[in-house]
Amino acid sequence: MKKMIALSCLLAALVGISAQESRRFFELGVDVEAGFANNYLGWNDIFTETIVIDLNQMNSDLGKMGFMVGLGMGADTYMNLTIPKKFSIGFNTGVSASGGITVPGSLFELLAEGNDPDKTYAGKLDVNADVYGFTDISIGLKAGPIWLTVTPAFYMPLLYIPDPDVTYSFVTSSDGTLRATAVADMAMYSVLDLEAIIEKTGANPAAGLGSGGGIDLSLGATYALLNNLDLGATFTSVPLLPASLANRTKFTARYSVDMEQVLKNMDNPVQTTETSDYSYDKEKILILRPFKFGLNANWRPFSRKILSFRPDLALGVYDGVFFDAGLNTRVNLANILIFDLDTGYRDRMWRHRIGMILNFRITETEIGFSSQSQAFTKSFGFSGMNLFVGMRMGF
């Protein structure tokens, strides 16, 4: 599931080389972002008086991909000091959280087409969640026609659920008997000792706080090829030291339904069983953030301050290889009113964003809104939305 959702879950307190673009010598800022996405239901399907779901159509449209839902949120605060065209340094700290679930297509096949005798339907639900805290320092330096940026970062996983095993099976027999079973086996890693908190063991739940943090490095270079054209390359989250968590809480649950032939057992044709358990232990797990290598450009056809086009392309590695591509168009009116239009496929999410910046020199406000989805066609129909708000002040 990490392949399909964790990165696409919206967030981004984007840590790395292109922190916040500063228009002041010194500034303080805060950004907040939250959103959700799915790959099937659109705005008109959700916000209606009567929700009608055609399982046959849903099964046909989704296919083996299944139904995906993602949620995310994040916030960060930062401080930047900039000497234009010479030097910059920025400090950034924040937190981000994401989670998601994928319901496999086989389940919709079962619901849409019924059950054939002596056939077994089975599948796995993919579930994931993670919460991170981070701090980084970004240093920029002008070296001839090249602007170099180095950003070492310290990150701490606070909560992590690494692809639990949640399965179901549905078996029918020609003699009329039926069995449905759901089994969940999952582990949750946390920075705090949940056993000490829940069971009140007397141990210090924060004993290991800060000891499992990781370190990675982001690098960037921008080359002024022409007066109106810059070319850039970035390496994001190059791992130096992986983070780790050792406080593990294990959950197991099983639920089954057995239906016998009604004529054989009129009094109790349906029998259900349910068992669940949880336990605590110490099991260290290593955690890396997504690594990316990207190329970008910034073309200003008329003026440095009026219009710019910024295409980007990246190769990412995180539970497999993925590709990013997008285009940002910016209209800058006297550096006071700035409009952004951005479209692309990034972190396995189609996102189309419109943003506006009001810059009054001492204060600046940015608002952005996105329509997004894991499916291209649904990304235009508000199957997911993301809201970004940023505030900055300085001189």
Structure summarized in a few sentences:
The protein is mostly beta strands and 395 residues long.
Describe this protein's structure.
The structure is a single chain. Residues 1-19 have low confidence and may be disordered. With 395 residues, this protein is mostly beta strands. The chain contains five helices and 18 strands. The protein has an 18-stranded antiparallel sheet that branches. The chain is globular, with a radius of gyration of 25 Å. Strand 4 (119-143) and strand 5 (146-161) form a beta hairpin. Helix content is 8%, strand content 62%. The longest helix has 9 residues, at 105-113.
Compile the SSE list and pairings.
Blueprint: H1 2-6, E1 26-38, H2 43-46, H3 55-62, E2 67-83, E3 87-103, H4 105-113, E4 119-143, E5 146-161, E6 165-172, E7 178-190, H5 194-198, E8 214-226, E9 229-241, E10 243-259, E11 270-287, E12 291-299, E13 307-317, E14 321-333, E15 337-346, E16 349-359, E17 363-373, E18 385-394
Antiparallel strand pairs: 1-2, 1-18, 2-3, 3-4, 4-5, 4-6, 5-7, 5-8, 6-7, 7-10, 8-9, 9-12, 10-11, 12-13, 13-14, 14-15, 15-16, 16-17, 17-18
